[in-house]
Amino acid sequence: MSFRYATQKLSTGLYEPEGIYLQKPFEGEGSVIQGWGEHAHEYSEYRYNGIPLKGHNGLDFKIEIHAHILAADEGRVIEVGWERGGFERYIKVEHRWGESFYAFLGEVLVDSGQLITRGAAIATPNGSQQSAPFFHFAIRVEPFNRLDGYGGFTDPTPFLNSIDVLEDEMAVESQMESGWIHPMLHEKTVMRRP
Known about the structure:
single chain; 194 residues; mainly beta; 7-stranded antiparallel β-sheet; 3-stranded antiparallel β-sheet; 2 helices; 12 strands
């Protein structure tokens, strides 16, 4: 199987977002513990490419302890990185429609440049969260603007099966009481955001 987008960037507007249907990005049971755009006041303290964030720029999923994180669609791994104190270990995958982003990972099961299939295991959740492992999932749909107040990310919820993105009401309430948001770094002039 050959992927034209594995070696060539997409032309602007080539694919319509309505044609994107994503695989659930994890095995087994899981739920959303922080949704798109939440905690706007707290996230406004952080900048993405010099622009204050308008809110949480993805979905945080709580998943089972031994579950794998899965590729939301077929594509090519374009970056496996580490952002100490921020997204920690992360993976970016290029797709025909844009890119997907997975952060707060434990063991990474893929290499940069590797072609992956839809639903392939790409990582495990961060091992330091044994009682309730979580990970951050986000997408950028071409064409995207990294200066839009969300770092170019788009709400992934409409592109997932709604059954897969149910909120865990108890976890959300617990977070609201504690004021928990996942860590982000304060941007510096020489910093490169994923």
